[in-house]
User: Fold this.
Amino acid sequence: MGSLYGYEIATSLPMRRLQELDGPRGYVRIEVGPDSLLDREGTLTAWSERMGGDGFALARVDPPPGGSAGSLLAWCAATGTYEIDAGRQTIRVACPRLDEGWEHRIGTMAIPLLLAERGELGLHASAVVAGDYAVLFAGPSGRGKSTLALSSARLGHPVLSEDGTVLSPNDPDLRAWPGPRGVRAVDPGPMDEPTERAARGGRRLIELPLGGEARRPVPVGAVCVLAQRGERLHIRPLTPADAVPALMPGLIHSGEPRALARSFALLARLLERVPAYRVSMPSRLDEAPAATALLLSELGSETVAGARSGLTESAPPQGPRHSAGRPSHRAGEPQGRGSGSGIAAGEAASEPPG
Assistant:
């Protein structure tokens, strides 16, 4: 056995991305379910259809005889069906292939959704350690969550998770716990002693070496909303009022009004305590390492700690260190060490707030 997000995972199924850590927060049981999981009556609560036929749907189903009420069915065209029973802390799966895609869905969708059903805050976000705090990177697919996680690990910043973060509202330290091991990403460059395996969607599962993954929970110090990629790195502070709507599409919940309201309230509470920034990464993958290094240096522990302590609803968090009075890098200007990317603290990002 192993753990994810601080919960012991009890299963006989092959799961290679579990953390080799204790699960002090409780347990989640994962079992094989019947192929007839979809043959249930219920109410559709969410639906999305992506290019290539990769559809996804959620439904609140009627319980079977003797079953607990309130379970969810999650259907994914690519990986199969998942019954999420928060009352029993159990996930039943009916998947044609127990491959990397299946385990990715379990770790970044099914388990965070189960924990959200139990009152925790789930976000589609990667999380890395910068100094004494965790920095979260949230945004839709293609904005750079996994690329930032991979680049951070190569720079010596341990990865907590690459596509899912769960926070407990009862934790006074707002800690992010280690999620699935490794990073599924388009690899922007070489890495010391990686073990890579082909994965769906053109991504590769990269198993990080010792030291590349966090081994303990870390307090959240900043949340970054990833805007569309651009020519260079942009970062600017966001007020909580601007950050909440920008982060809402990344909330993990059942799609029902009461679940959305609960997640909205938890997100607002998080942003009352933690500073938020809008970040646009360079579009060139070979510039990701230098841009990541610059970003994490700007969001250092001293800056984050100061922003956390001084955050109010009426004012944005303090800008990154050393940004005041420093000229931003423009295309074609020298940037030191050939980084190939610049930072424009306080400038408008490539997308409007929200």
User: Anything to note?
Assistant: The chain has two domains: 2-118, 123-310.
